[in-house]
């Protein structure tokens, strides 16, 4: 029961009550003081009195006054009870249903990821079957039908898919057009943003409340929340945004929260163990060029009732290019496949699959597509992650060309460049290391003097072995290279005695480091710390963590630069046994999560020179995996991953002119212009192709469903009602059941919920209670005054003195 | 005040003593030195089972330390001689003067100064009121009176006063009588100084005349006075013991009648403390004792007016008596009886002195 009136509407009552029954009960309580009076009257025994003559005379003298006093007290007491009773009935001024003003109905339609939950799974295919969104639209249309445009009713639509988007706003009087907009409202894959929608409403109302038109004819506002309000859509631990203030409090109509949870398994992540997939060599020897393969970890999570059961989920993973991507997303064929076994109660799991990139692929056109079997919520059953795939990683070795290569002269005369080239392209031939054939890593030597002029275009990484020979332009080019995502590895030149280059290095890369200008000779030599800092989570050497103790044992270091830095400004990659860093990286670009947001690629400093005079590392087995991992992972970390979640700010490669849809999901939104791609939130999942000025593909851009909204569990109805009550007060919340009737009162329909007229009128309970309190105080004062208690005390005292 | 329980009074059974004496006689105070006021306090009196013992204790307390009265019956004090004229009673010739001077002279003496006391006790319905509990009045003694009442009423107090007055009078050899009245004379004891008078008075006082009828009668003092004075020819001291809750105009007429007949009057107005203070705190119905009906009211609301009215009534009552040259004494049922008894004795002495030289 949302409202009602006492008496006939024709009587044009001055009061109406939101809870008439309570009001009637409260009014009936007037009898309480009268009953108390009667009861006490009957109980008192008469006092036999001798001086009755004087008593009667005194009473006769004051009879009129006493009668008035008693009536006044009785009236006060009855009025106090009456006011409290009426306050309980939550009265509002004016009649409840008569003389309605215009209604402004704001339809907050949930078109988020959770609106993609299927209503019926009889059709098990991906397509077909009604979605929750369809029901929300039907309810919205039904509420829309309760409005009357001729009376001035208006309707607005806000799509709740985050960030909340006003679709029809301010509310329009063209209710037919609003209905059409509703029908065409697409589903999205972002999480619901009810708070944002309410904040938008509040801001708009606050702004409009000062307009003269709004003050003259205030419309009754009704906010309809059309959502199942599942657990993934709301954070009930946070208070509901309040719509208090402004011209009037709105009425809140909400669909009843979903009664049943839905089984949902979502793909929560695709993570290649190496961010850059290195393709097969032309001779097909993938194992040689890409040791360890291209492993990808696919993470899953379960929500809803299914978490209490065991089961199995088939995970398919495919690596597709732009052409095959649409097909792969819609229905993957081929690729790797794995089965994830679930234990009862288990909520998360992961599967590791191997993928092999095709030959000669477009380096910017590949994406990993993971897919699981369809369930109640199909939108989060597929995930796309654009990846970089290269036939080879091109590494620039910045080394003075004045030094002749000594590869053929014996390892004792190897330069640092020789060692690097050797470890980047190892080839076992007759037991001797030879750089004889191209592999996944292609080193190219660049003279430091020419670096300032030509730059490092086309390279993925630069290993600076002659830092002391770099000019200012060379350092600037190096920084620019890093800014575009290149990996920069700097080692001290072995021949330098004073390393003044460190100043330029620190300055150019904006590091907060302190590097010694002279190498420190370590007495007796030092080894490499057996443990990788951070263990398996080490950004560059995590994969080596298990094998490092064995590999590092034979390595000795006799000279090294010392690097110190404030906490957090240096990421140790590998330490000497003395504790000082052997390999350090600049922060902010060494983790996958941060790589995309970093302003530059990975910057790595090795404190010892690749020279046998400094260390015997080049001759040890550790050298090969060390260099390979630093280059491979460093390049991968340096590359930005253009993958975002629906509803979050879109990231696209620099220079993107347009985003062209690749898969069917992206087709819903169509091409995105470059201006919109810069930081705009895209609510729909899909894969887009970032196109540059000349129509070249810069990268794939993947937008995945926001799995934060994948929780299809139900919320507690009572808790939800309380939460909704925080928006505009519990008394203004109406819950609509699935049959369109009010929950708890079948006689009330959605129409009555819309037209209940209390939303812009405050119940005057508080003023009534205040009046009751004031009357109660008055009654106390009057009772004390009329009872002459004070006088009696004084009189009794004097009488006591007389008697004494 | 000494604890009565520690006094020697309790070493003797007062009831046994009273029964043994049966009439004014040996007083315990002659044997034990105690505070006389102790005996005159209603609380003490209430412990005593009979009126006669109460009165005895009162008077012994008052007269403790007095000399015995010099007035023993008729007066024989010489006043003057005058010549005999025919018709004079020859028994009053002074034969000694005739023998010496051979002239007939009549010997004149002072008039007889025997005091006649008539105690008039009001037994109307209003006298039944008493807010003090009998238990309180009796200390740790009885909880109820002999007739079963649990309160110490104004009539109880009045009987104590009347008994004490009678006892004093009889003890001095004067005549004492009693009239108990309400709307008319309900009981009376003729004036007498005989031994049995005391018994008769006590007997009359111990039995409330209206209680037997189980009715409440209003006071009609004029009628009662007429009835009482009908049989009185000589001047008397009339002790009026009442609450005087009556029409003061009627009282004024009655007092004027007494004055006209040259009676002397001492008035004791007995009121309860509750009537004087009216300190009720809860609304309650009040029911008149003289069939005035019932009324429910908040006593706090009309207390001031009530007190003003009753004070005015008391003042007017006193004025009526004082205006006629009579004594007036206001008594509270919670007060001791020393002051009224002292006032009575003083008044009696004054009367005797006045009449001696009249």
What is the secondary structure topology, with strand pairs?
The complex is a heterodimer of chains A (804) and B (358).
Chain A: E1 15-17, H1 20-28, H2 31-43, E2 47-49, H3 52-88, E3 91-93, E4 103-109, H4 132-145, E5 154-159, E6 165-172, H5 175-183, H6 194-208, H7 212-216, E7 220-226, E8 251-255, E9 264-272, E10 276-278, H8 286-289, E11 294-303, E12 311-321, H9 322-330, E13 336-342, E14 348-355, E15 366-372, E16 382-390, E17 393-398, H10 416-424, E18 428-429, E19 432-433, E20 441-446, H11 448-454, E21 461-464, H12 472-483, E22 487-490, H13 501-509, E23 514-515, E24 520-526, H14 548-552, E25 557-560, E26 563-564, E27 571-575, E28 581-585, H15 592-595, E29 603-606, H16 623-638, E30 643-645, E31 658-661, H17 664-667, E32 672-673, H18 674-677, E33 686-691, E34 697-704, H19 717-728, E35 733-736, E36 741-742, E37 745-749, H20 750-755, H21 765-787, H22 789-803
Parallel strand pairs in A: 4-5, 4-7, 7-8, 8-35, 10-16, 17-20, 17-21, 21-22, 22-29, 30-34
Antiparallel strand pairs in A: 1-3, 5-6, 9-11, 11-14, 12-13, 12-15, 15-16, 18-19, 23-26, 24-25, 27-28, 28-29, 31-32, 31-33, 33-34, 36-37
Chain B: H1 14-21, H2 36-40, H3 42-47, H4 51-63, E1 78-83, H5 95-101, E2 105-109, E3 116-122, E4 132-133, H6 134-137, E5 151-152, H7 154-171, E6 175-181, E7 185-192, H8 195-205, H9 209-213, H10 221-229, E8 237-242, H11 248-260, E9 264-271, H12 273-277, E10 284-288, E11 294-297, H13 299-323, E12 327-332, H14 338-356
Parallel strand pairs in B: 3-6, 3-8, 8-9, 9-12
Antiparallel strand pairs in B: 1-2, 4-5, 6-7, 10-11
């Amino acid at each position: 029961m949302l409202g009602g009136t006492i008496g006939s509407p024709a009587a044009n009552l001055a009061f109406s009550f939101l809870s008439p029954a309570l009001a009637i009960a409260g009014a009936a309580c007037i009898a309480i003081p009268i009953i108390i009076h009667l009861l006490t009257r009957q109980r008192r025994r008469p006092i036999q009195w001798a001086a009755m003559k004087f008593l009667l005379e005194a009473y006769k003298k004051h009879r009129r006054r006493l009668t008035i006093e008693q009536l006044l007290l009785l009236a006060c007491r009855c009025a106090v009870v009456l006011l409290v009773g009426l306050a309980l009935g939550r009265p509002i001024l004016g009649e409840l249903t008569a003389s309605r003003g215009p209604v402004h109905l704001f339809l907050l339609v949930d078109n988020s990821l959770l609106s993609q939950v299927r209503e019926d799974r009889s059709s098990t295919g991906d397509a077909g079957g009604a979605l929750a969104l369809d029901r929300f639209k039907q309810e919205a249309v039904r509420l829309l039908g309760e409005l009357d445009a001729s009376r001035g009713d208006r309707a607005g639509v806000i799509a709740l898919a985050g960030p909340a988007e006003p679709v029809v706003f301010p509310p329009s009087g063209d209710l037919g057009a609003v209905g059409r907009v509703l029908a065409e409202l697409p589903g999205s894959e972002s999480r619901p943003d009810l708070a944002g929608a309410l904040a938008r409403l509040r801001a708009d109302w606050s702004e409009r409340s000062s307009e003269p038109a709004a003050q003259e004819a205030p419309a009754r506002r009704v906010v309809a929340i059309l959502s199942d309000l599942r657990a993934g859509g709301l954070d009930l631990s946070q208070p509901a945004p309040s719509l208090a203030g402004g011209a009037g409090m709105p009425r809140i109509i909400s669909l009843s929260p979903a009664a049943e949870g839905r089984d949902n398994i979502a793909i929560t992540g695709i993570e290649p163990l190496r961010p850059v997939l290195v393709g097969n060599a032309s001779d097909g020897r993938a194992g040689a060029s890409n040791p360890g393969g291209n492993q990808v970890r696919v993470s899953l999570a379960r929500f809803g009732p299914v978490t209490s059961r065991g089961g199995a989920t088939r995970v398919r993973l495919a690596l597709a290019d732009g052409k095959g991507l649409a097909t792969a997303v819609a229905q993957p064929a081929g690729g790797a496949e794995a089965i994830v076994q679930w234990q009862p109660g288990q909520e998360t799991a992961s599967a590791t699959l191997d993928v092999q990139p095709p030959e000669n692929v477009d380096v910017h056109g590949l994406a990993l597509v993971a897919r699981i079997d369809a369930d109640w919520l199909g939108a989060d059953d597929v995930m796309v992650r654009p990846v970089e795939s290269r036939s080879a990683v091109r590494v620039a070795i910045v080394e003075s060309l004045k030094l002749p290569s000594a590869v053929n002269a014996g390892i004792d005369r190897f330069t640092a460049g020789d060692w690097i080239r050797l470890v980047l392209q190892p080839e076992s031939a007759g037991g001797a290391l030879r750089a004889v054939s191209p592999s996944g890593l292609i080193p190219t030597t660049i003279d430091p003097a020419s670096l300032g002029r030509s730059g490092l275009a086309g390279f993925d990484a630069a290993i600076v072995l002659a830092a002391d020979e770099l000019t200012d332009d060379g350092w600037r080019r190096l920084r620019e290279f890093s800014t575009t995502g290149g990996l920069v590895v700097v080692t001290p030149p072995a021949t330098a005695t004073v390393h003044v280059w460190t100043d330029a290095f620190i300055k150019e890369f904006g590091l907060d480091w302190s590097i010694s200008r002279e190498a420190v000779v370590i007495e007796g030599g030092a080894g490499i710390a057996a443990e990788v800092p951070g263990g398996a989570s080490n950004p560059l050497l995590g994969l080596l963590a298990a094998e490092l103790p064995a590999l590092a044992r034979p390595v000795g270091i006799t000279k090294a630069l010392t690097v110190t830095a404030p906490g957090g400004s240096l990421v140790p990659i590998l330490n000497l046994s003395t504790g000082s860093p052997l390999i350090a990286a600049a922060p902010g670009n060494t983790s996958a999560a941060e790589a995309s947001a970093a302003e530059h690629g990975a910057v790595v400093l090795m404190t010892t020179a690749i020279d046998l005079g400094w260390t015997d590392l080049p001759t040890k087995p550790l050298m090969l995996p060390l260099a390979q991992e630093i280059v491979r992972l460093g390049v991968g970390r340096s590359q930005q991953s253009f993958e975002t979640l629906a509803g979050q700010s879109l990231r696209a490669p620099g220079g993107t002119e347009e985003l062209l849809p690749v898969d069917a999901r992206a087709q819903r939104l169509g091409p995105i212009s470059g201006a919109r791609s810069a930081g705009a939130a895209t609510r729909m999942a899909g894969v887009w192709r970032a196109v540059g000025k000349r129509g070249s593909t810069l990268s794939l851009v993947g937008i995945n469903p926001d799995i934060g909204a994948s929780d299809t569990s139900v919320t507690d109805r009572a808790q939800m009602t309380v939460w909704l009550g925080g928006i505009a007060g519990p008394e203004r919340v109406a819950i609509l059941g699935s049959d369109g009737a009010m929950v708890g009162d079948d006689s009330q329909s959605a129409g009555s919920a819309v037209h209940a007229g209390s939303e812009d009128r405050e119940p005057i309970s508080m003023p009534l209670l205040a009046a009751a309190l004031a009357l109660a105080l008055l009654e106390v004062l009057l009772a004390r005054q009329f009872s002459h208690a004070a006088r009696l005390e004084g009189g009794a005292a004097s009488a006591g003195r007389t008697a004494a | 005040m000494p604890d009565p329980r520690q006094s020697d009074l309790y070493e003797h059974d007062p009831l046994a003593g009273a029964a043994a004496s049966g009439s004014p006689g040996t007083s315990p105070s002659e044997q034990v030195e105690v505070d006389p006021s102790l005996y005159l306090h209603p609380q003490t009196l209430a412990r005593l089972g009979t009126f006669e013992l109460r009165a005895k204790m009162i008077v012994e307390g008052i007269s403790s330390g007095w000399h015995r009265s010099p007035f023993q019956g008729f007066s024989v004090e010489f006043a003057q001689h005058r010549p005999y004229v025919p018709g004079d009673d020859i028994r009053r010739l002074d034969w000694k003067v005739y023998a010496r001077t051979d002239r007939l002279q009549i010997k004149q003496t002072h008039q007889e100064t025997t005091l006649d006391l008539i105690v008039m006790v009001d037994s109307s319905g209003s006298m039944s009121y008493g807010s003090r509990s009998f238990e309180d009045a009796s200390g740790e003694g009885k909880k109820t009176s002999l007739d079963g009442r649990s309160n110490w009423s104004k009539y109880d107090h009045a009987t104590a006063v009347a008994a004490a007055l009678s006892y004093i009078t009889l003890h001095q050899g004067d005549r004492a009588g009693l009239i108990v009245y309400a709307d008319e004379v309900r009981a009376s004891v003729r004036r007498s100084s005989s031994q049995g008078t005391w018994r008769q008075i006590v007997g009359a006082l111990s039995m409330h005349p209206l209680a037997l009828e189980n009715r409440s009668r209003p006071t009609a003092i004029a009628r009662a006075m007429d009835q009482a004075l009908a049989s009185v020819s000589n001047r008397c001291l009339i002790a009026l013991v009442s609450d005087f809750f009556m029409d003061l105009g009627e009282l004024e007429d009655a007092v004027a009648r007494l004055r006209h007949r040259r009676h002397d009057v001492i008035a004791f107005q007995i009121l309860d403390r509750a009537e004087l203070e009216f300190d009720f705190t809860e609304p309650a119905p009040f029911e008149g004792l003289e069939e005035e009906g019932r009324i429910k009211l908040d006593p706090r609301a009309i207390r001031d007016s009530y007190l003003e009215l009753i004070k005015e009534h008391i003042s007017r009552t006193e004025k009526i008596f004082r205006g006629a040259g009579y004594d007036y004494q206001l008594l509270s049922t919670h007060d001791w009886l020393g002051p009224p008894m002292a006032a009575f004795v003083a008044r009696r002495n004054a009367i005797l002195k006045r009449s001696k030289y009249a």
